[in-house]
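Dear colleagues,

As part of the handover before I leave the project, I'm documenting each prediction I ran so the next person doesn't have to rerun anything. This entry is a single chain, and its sequence is reproduced below.
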Amino acid sequence: MKNIQDVSLEGKRVLIRVDFNVPLDEHFNITDNSRILAALPTIKKVISCGGKAILMSHLGRPKDSFEEKFSLKHIVKQLSKLIDRTVAFSSDCIGESTTADISKMENGDVLVLENLRFYKEEKLGGLKFAKQLSELADIYINDAFGTAHRAHASTAIIADYFPNTKYFGFLLSGEIESLEKALTTPKRPFTAIIGGAKISGKIDVIKSLFDKVDNLIIGGGMAYTFAKACSGNIGKSLVEEEKIALAKQLIEDAKNRGVNLLLPSDSVNANDFKNDANTNITDIKNIADEYMGLDIGPESIASFSSIIKNSKTIIWNGPMGVFEMENFCKGTKEIGEAICEATENGAFSLVGGGDSVAAVKKFGFADKVSYISTGGGAMLEYLEGKELPGVVAIQKS
């Protein structure tokens, strides 16, 4: 893999595509700095070797022009603290002012460019915009797994302008190596846990995993569509009516392929979508009309946990219920605990997807799983077997 481990960086202008798309509060304070922390090894490598680290990223979804709340200047203070040195900021990401800011850099300096998405050409994969970015540096590093599935100017197009000096950063190479470890040479039993609200965004992942896993556990809101497909009464639970036939087909496909598809048998239900609602626990196929399912029940937790604890490779994408509410977090928490126990006993566990990662952090599991992916969408597309434009761009000669 073409990473920067053995590259001479001294005196070089090194343009690093990072993923600093972090959440900010109303005062522009960073509320979760995980993505910044994940990029630090690559940044520190560049500056410790005497390179000039020029960082570019997107933040939020601006409408193709400057918006104060999406300015990357809000990142600078936190980054300066994390790397223990002053970080400079450029008020643009291309043009004369940016070139001037870079010309002032000394070896070991760090400069953050303004939000790439203030230009519509970034998402459109504009050739001219990519070329302008490329002219800022001698070396290009992509370390943004979260956007590797997008053919944007700064992730895919720009690499063509660095035919012999483009590399993966430590984060991106680590993501690919971890996914490959799980998918290509998994120790068995291999268990995938897929949760979240809807089947819609996970159809291709589920189909792809049928070819790879021994066990596939379904939880979260999507489980109720499967329950209805099995002629269950699911009350007011979330359901995708148009996906019921597909759910039936997926159940049949799992049987035909010899995959152990585990669906929840019971459900924690509420008469309203709030933490202090009236609750009960029932068979998932027998939920009263005025109730909705918001978490998996104790029987499901026990059967899922047993499978997980006996697994040697585990992928987790999506929570088991509405874990943000205390009364409906038990399923997600206890499945996480089972994954941690399996990991402690030698299993390889990979967690990805925004909600899964949030749950892992909420319950203190971050240091107890093998790997946490920083890119939910990119991880899903990789699991589907799709090529990621940002990865292919570095790999091709």
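The radius of gyration is 23 Å. The longest helix spans residues 34-48.

All the best with the project,
I.
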